[in-house]
Amino acid sequence: MGITGLMRKLPMRFGEIEILDDLKDHWDSKEHKKERDALLKMLIHLSAERAFRFTLLSGDVHCAGYGMIHGRGDESESDVEDMPVPTEKQRAADPRFIPQIVSSAIVNVPPPSYVLLMNGRAGAHPMSVLGDCVWRMMSLTRHFHLGSKSPDDLLLGERNWCRVAQRDAEDGHSGKLLFSLRCEKGLGTGRMRTYKLEVPPLRRL
Known about the structure:
Elements lengths: L5 H9 L3 H7 L8 H18 L5 E3 L5 E8 L16 H5 L5 E5 L10 H10 L4 E3 L3 E6 L16 E2 L3 E7 L10 E8 L7 E8 L6
Parallel strand pairs: 1-3
Antiparallel strand pairs: 2-3, 2-5, 2-6, 4-5, 7-8, 8-9
C-alpha cells in the first residue's frame, strides 16, 4: 500500500488515521505472524506439559467476536476448510484448544463497517496454523458452535464489555470459565444483549 500511495490516501479519505494501525495489529497481519506463532507454540507447550487451559482475551478493535484454535487431528491441510467444529468433549481434551474472546471497553465507538467487513472476510474460512492446528472464527449471532457462513456475522460492530466468572463446582461445571459478552443493541440506547461462551478446563484422557 505504501508503494501505490494507498497508505497515504486512506487516512485522508476516511479521516481516521488510527484505522491503519488497527489493521496492522490484525491477528493474521504479516508484520506479527512470526511473533504470533511463537506465542501460540509456547502456550500449547505449557498447556500439554502442565494441563493449563489458556484463553486469549483481546480487544482494542472496538467490536465483539469469538474465535478458537484447536488441533487438526487426522485432517489433511487441504481439508481444513471443511473440518467440523470439535465437540465440547474434544475441546476439553485438546491441549491445542485456545479460545479467543474479542471485546473492548464499552465507551469505544465501533469501527466503520468496511473495517468489520474486511476483518470478517479474513476470518470467514478456517485456516491451518503451526502445521497441526486450525484457526477459525465463530458466529455470535447464531448458535455459536455451528459457526457461520456469512462474514458479516463474525464481528459485531457494537459497543460491549466482557464479564468473566468461574462456574460453580456443584453444578457439574468444575473449573469452567463463563465469558459473558454484553453488547449494546444500538449505539447509545443502553439496551444490552448477552452472548455466553463456556471454556472448559483441560481434561487429560
